[in-house]
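S.,

As promised, the zinc ion run. Input:
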Amino acid sequence: MTLRNPHKAFEEYLSTHEGRYTLQKRVIVDEIFKIKEHFEIEDFIDRLRADKAKLSRATVYRTVKQLLDAGLIQKISTRDGKVFYERSTPDKQHDHIICNACGKILEIKESFISEYLSTYCDKIDFYPEYRSLHIYGECSKCRKKSGK
Ligand SMILES: [Zn+2]
Ligand SMILES: [Zn+2]
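Predicted complex:
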């Protein structure tokens, strides 16, 4: 699987959305696209600071928001209010199953789900820009522990 060059895609997005692609943003995008897991923004900021870059928290938040709008990352929210992000591209968007007890995040990547959803949107003449499907519940380990 090859990701489309995120820099090129982001630059295109910014050129039509009031933004300049600054060196700071490039550093942030580089770092985000190195992370293969779901990550929390505050952990990401700590990691950036430990590494090198003196980037302001506001710049990181703004860039993450713009990456989300550009479809280059996905956002996952847990039921207790934690927010995770992960790198993505519009053709690779997928859905998540989240355990409310242990916080584990599983991924649903079956392509027939994407196909079905895009057919459905076509049918009702809806143009999808971003998709985020979450299923909350309890994983098998946690259910065993709680005796359900
Ligand atoms: Zn669990
Ligand atoms: Zn994911």
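The longest helix spans residues 57-69. Helices lie at 6-15, 23-32, 41-51, 57-69, 111-123, 140-146.

- D.
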